[in-house]
Fold this sequence. Notes:
The chain is mostly beta strands. The protein has helices spanning about 40-50, 165-170; strands spanning about 10-15, 20, 25-30, 55-60, 70-75, 80, 85, 95, 100-105, 110-115, 120-125, 130, 135-140, 150-155, 160, 170-175, 180-185. Strand 16 and strand 17 form a beta hairpin. The longest helix is centred in the first third of the chain and has 9 residues, at about 40-50. It is globular, with a radius of gyration of 17 Å.
Amino acid sequence: xxxxxxxxxxxxxxxxxxxxxxxxxxxxxxxxxxxxxxxxxxxxxxxxxxxxxxxxxxxxxxxxxxxxxxxxxxxxxxxxxxxxxxxxxxxxxxxxxxxxxxxxxxxxxxxxxxxxxxxxxxxxxxxxxxxxxxxxxxxxxxxxxxxxxxxxxxxxxxxxxxxxxxxxxxxxxxxxxxxxxxxxxxxxxxxxxx
Length: 194
Ligand code: S6P
Ligand code: ZN
C-alpha cells in the first residue's frame, strides 16, 4: 500500500478541449511515437517524415497509480489515417487482472478488445460507455471526422503492458471505407479463420 494520502477533490472536464483542471500527467503521441502500429509501412514513413502529426493526447487527473486509488484521464484522438488505417492509440493490456470503463465524451470511436484469441469491438460516443473486462488488451480508434474524446477510469493497481500489443497486435485493424469504417478481424476467433 502507498503511504500517499489523497484528499477528496473535484475536477472540471472541458469536453470541448479535453482539458482536465486540476491537471495530472499529460502524454502526447505523434506519428513518430507509433512505429510498427500501422500496416502500411510506406504510408507510415511518409506521415512521419512529412509533418509528424499529433495522433492523440491523454490528460490525467492528479491521482496516483497505486492500488486502492482510482485514476482517471481524458483521451483525445484526432481524426485521420495512415494509409487508410484510422488513427488509434498504442493499446495495452493491464499487468494485473483489472478491468476499466470508457465513457464517451465527444466524437465517434471504437474500443477494440483482444483476449489473445478473440477480437471484439464496441462503439463509443457521447452517452455510450465501453466496458473492458479484466484480461482483455484494449485500444481505441477514431472512426469519425471530429476529434474522438473519452474518459477512462481504472484501478490504480492495473499497470500497463505495451509489449503484449506490440508483439501480438490487437487481432483486428480498422480502415476507412465508403460506409465510414471497416473492421478487419484477423484473430483466431474470426469467422472462417483456422
Ligand atoms: C489507461 C487507459 C487510457 C489509455 C489512453 C491511451 O488504462 O486505458 O487512459 O492509457 O487512452 O492509450 P495507450 O494505449 O497509449 O495507453
Ligand atoms: Zn487500460
